[in-house]
Amino acid sequence: TLFSNKKKKRKKICYIFFIVVNEFCERFSYYGMRAVLVLYFRYFLLWDDDLATSIYHAFVALCYLTPILGAIIADSWLGKFKTIIYLSIVYAIGQVTMAISTIHDITDANRDGTPDNFTFHIALSMLGLILIALGTGGIKPCVAAFGGDQFQEHQSRQLNTFFSVFYLCINAGSLLSTLITPLKSVASTLMVFIAGSGMYVKTDPEGNIMWSVCKCIGFAIKNRFRHRSSSYPKREHWMDWANEKYDKLLIAQIKMVLKVLFLYIPLPMFWTLFDQKGSRWTLQATTMSGDFVSILISTVNPILILTLVPIMDRLIFPLIQKCGLNFSPLKRMTVGMLFAAMAFVSAALVQIEIDKTLPNFPSSSESQLKVVNTYSTTLNVTISPNEHLLIESFGSSADYVTFDHQDITVSLNTNPVITKAFSLIKGGRQTLIIPSDPTVMYLKEDVKSKPREGKNAIRFVNGYTADLNITNLDSIEPSATTNYTLVNQGKRDFVLRHGEQWCEFSRKFGFGASYTFLIPSTVFSDDCESITEVEDMKPNSVHMALQIPQYFLITTGEVMFSVTGLQFSYSQAPKNMKSVLQAGWLCTNAVGNIIVLIVAELGKLPKQWAEYLLFASLLVAVSIIFSIMAYFYTYIDPAEIEAQVRKEQGLEPEEMEKETLEMEEKDEDQKNEQGVKQTKI
Ligand SMILES: NCCCC[C@H](N)C(=O)NCC(=O)O
């Protein structure tokens, strides 16, 4: 017995291996593609930030809505195994379609590096994304439930370990995806999964279960309405009104599912906060200093998951249990929510620090102006009605001057006095450039927010007497100003050229600054030494390391909330509706994403820190509601309830046999475990 049980255990570890490696590959592919999706929208399809972000979130939401479809197909028709295989093929076709949509040569007839027919690329990429969403979302509830199906009812400890390992694989896949291309992994996902085919426990679909569930619920509601008069005796549960027509077992199973789904109602709020990691927190990072922006954003969460899941599973939870505290799944989920709320409080505190260092940007009704003087002498600049600025040659006004009106008149104390009227941009920042010929002074628009991804925005004013060429920029005419170019942090070299003359100048950049470089007429004679810099926007000074606590808190919350939620959804579902409840669980994530979309559309509170605190308070309120709902929830053993109902109905011999077999196996396992313990002693 000992030998055969060891063999069985090894076999189980082997096929669980295939399932978790399958999840690893699938997540590797999914996150690998997701990481570059917004960049593809922005720089290939040339969409603006808002459209790119909206389509990105819509895609993520779709990926978490399609599990309903996958669950219906699996539980009602194909079974989990075949659903995973078929939808993985759909997934692979989606990835290939997406890859093809990125080949600009297909429509780039004039070979200028940009596609000629954007509609073709957009249509192809949207088709690819829909197929990927169908594939990834469709197989997701099935893989988790299929993994769970490999365990028997008495193996709850092993089942919990499986879900932890499953989650570790999700995050290992996502972590590695930042390093290797995603396409190869789709094929390997399928191959790994099929390789284990002969070993899996495959439960058969039990007819169109979702349709039966809908019909049964519909009948219960109709029947209840028909018997609404008080002369009819009340029933214990409203679903009992389906008793006249439907099987007691089906009614009992629906009651179990509805009970859990009801509990899910407050959960999307957790995901609303969690998913802002990728949006608001990323934007926050761009206003901070430190050279690990992209690494931090894409890897800190999976790295923390890989560390925290084993610590929680092996240390924290057993320790809490040893202290005699009952840290039930629903309590863990509540604590998880509170951790996420704390993460947002931490984000708010960081934001307050950042705000102290941010420039004072104009409001939508204000305009801001700075003056740059490249004239040969110091100038007295008067801006009507009462702004007087003294500006040295090749210098600038100390800071932006804010106006609550747009029409201004500028006078220079030249001989004769030069006066010119300008209309400023409402809500904008501009610089008045005074060139060597002040009569042609002009306005140039400035950046009015921190440059993205911690980059630096730079531009040049040509005070030289002829056209200049600067590395990577178009030629600049005398007195003209270039548009901003973004440069990364670190030391950058620029070569200035006019005909045979040239000189080189270097500059070390921090994060998120903006500069205007003033090139004097003497630039070649003093070897670029006389180029002066005007700081339009200070570099970021709050270090990105300050974001680590919020990432740590939200990931701790995720381990408590998400890993537990996954296990809970499986353990509380009747056997034939495991994938359906997994899909319900994933839908909470979709709703969370949709809320993020709505919040982004509705706009922000004037102060970002206030928005973070608002979200934290909302989640605390929701977690209180959830804890009250959880208090009234009684944990069930679906198999036990099903057995009881079957017993009441009179068991069929076939099922009885199956159950006896399972009981015998359970006994064997227990005896074996005791045997192993005794041997150890
Ligand atoms: N690049 C970030 C990946 C985050 C993964 C996240 N921690 C997670 O586990 N999500 C669940 C899933 O099923 O993808």
From TrEMBL:
Provide the catalytic activity annotation: glycyl-L-glutamine(out) + H(+)(out) = glycyl-L-glutamine(in) + H(+)(in); glycylglycyl-L-isoleucine(out) + H(+)(out) = glycylglycyl-L-isoleucine(in) + H(+)(in); L-alanyl-L-aspartate(out) + 2 H(+)(out) = L-alanyl-L-aspartate(in) + 2 H(+)(in); L-methionyl-L-phenylalanyl-L-methionine(out) + H(+)(out) = L-methionyl-L-phenylalanyl-L-methionine(in) + H(+)(in)
Task: Report residue spans for region: Disordered.
Answer: 647-681
Q: What's the protein here called?
A: Solute carrier family 15 member 1
Q: Tell me the function of this protein.
A: Electrogenic proton-coupled amino-acid transporter that transports oligopeptides of 2 to 4 amino acids with a preference for dipeptides. Transports neutral and monovalently charged peptides with a proton to peptide stoichiometry of 1:1 or 2:1. Primarily responsible for the absorption of dietary di- and tripeptides from the small intestinal lumen. Mediates transepithelial transport of muramyl and N-formylated bacterial dipeptides contributing to recognition of pathogenic bacteria by the mucosal immune system.
- Report the PANTHER family cross-referenced here: OLIGOPEPTIDE TRANSPORTER-RELATED
> Biased composition, Basic and acidic residues: where in the chain?
658-674
Tell me which GO cellular component terms the UniProt record holds. Answer: apical plasma membrane
Query: GO annotations under biological process?
Result: oligopeptide transport; protein transport
SUPFAM superfamilies, A to Z: MFS general substrate transporter
Q: One Pfam annotation, family name? A: PTR2
The species this protein was found in: Cyprinus carpio carpio
Domain of life where this protein originates: Eukaryota
InterPro entries the record matches: MFS_trans_sf, POT_fam, PTR2_symporter_CS
* Keyword terms: Cell membrane, Glycoprotein, Membrane, Peptide transport, Protein transport, Symport, Transmembrane, Transmembrane helix, Transport
Q: Which GO terms describe its molecular function?
A: symporter activity
Topology in the lipid bilayer: Multi-pass membrane protein
Where does the protein end up? Answer: Apical cell membrane; Cell membrane; Membrane
What parts of the sequence cross the membrane?
A: 12-31, 51-72, 84-106, 118-139, 159-179, 256-274, 294-312, 333-352, 580-600, 612-636
Instruction: Specify where it is mainly localized.
Output: membrane
Family according to the record:
Belongs to the major facilitator superfamily. Proton-dependent oligopeptide transporter (POT/PTR) (TC 2.A.17) family.
